[in-house]
Amino acid sequence: MADNRNPEDLSVLYLQATHISSSVSSLTVDDIVKVKRSDNLIWKLYTDNYLHRRVLSYLNHMGFYGVLECGSQVIDNHFITALVERWRCETHTFHFTCGEATVTLQDVSIIWGLTIDGEAVTGVDVSHKVEEWQHICLDMLGFLSASKYLKGGHLSMTALHDHCISNPVNDETSEVDVVKFTRCVALMIIGGIMFPDYQGGSSRLIFLQLLRDLDNVKSYSWGSAEHFYIIWAWSRIKYVNPDRDGLTLVVPPVDPDALIPVSPYGAR
Q1: DSSP state string for 114-125
Q2: N or C terminus: which one in the chain shows less Cβ crowding within 10 Å?
Q3: Domain map (residue ranges) of the chain
Q4: What is the pLDDT of residues 56-65, one digit of tens each?
């Protein structure tokens, strides 16, 4: 970079004309990226203790428990804007004054505890009619969603949340119903935290095909598609992280027989 604003070599950063940093160069610095969140309802389930230990055990087995343990992050739109201004699609790295950096698979594995080995998270986005999606939801999630909650292969988070609230898992719940409840929660985690998209407040039902066999979920490389920038930036860019003065990191011993494992680095 020639300075903090303009690229030195446009043959490398050839998208500069349409890049957000061009706004900074023209001194129109009030354009703030507003982050659309889709995760509020999954955190409500978590904090209100609707996730029974049997469900948490399944989520751990699937590899998603660490994402929940990292908790809901306070979104600083100015901070996100600063990161976006420094992200370059041409190189898939952040361009800082000290050099380039990016989220690595090791970061994802250590910070969030997600799997980074295995099959890629892909699939064919099959176009189903609303009635077909309703029957798929009944079969795999345990409820027949109202048509108003289904749109373009997306299922509303509200429908998933309301079903979980109305049908909580307890010690007496059948294993079949626990599995269906867990799929609902997993779909909320995937659509609300891991793979949020332009729809907002909904999750893509294409992911259901990967949740059919809970024993097989961890065989997919969920981490290779994930970018959780807030915690990553806190851990890598020390002067922007929360104040840790006087804070001592205590890592509890790992009990191999424990139902739920020790939290990942991001949570601690």
Answers
A1: ---SSB-S----
A2: C
A3: 40-71+124-220
A4: 999 999 999 8
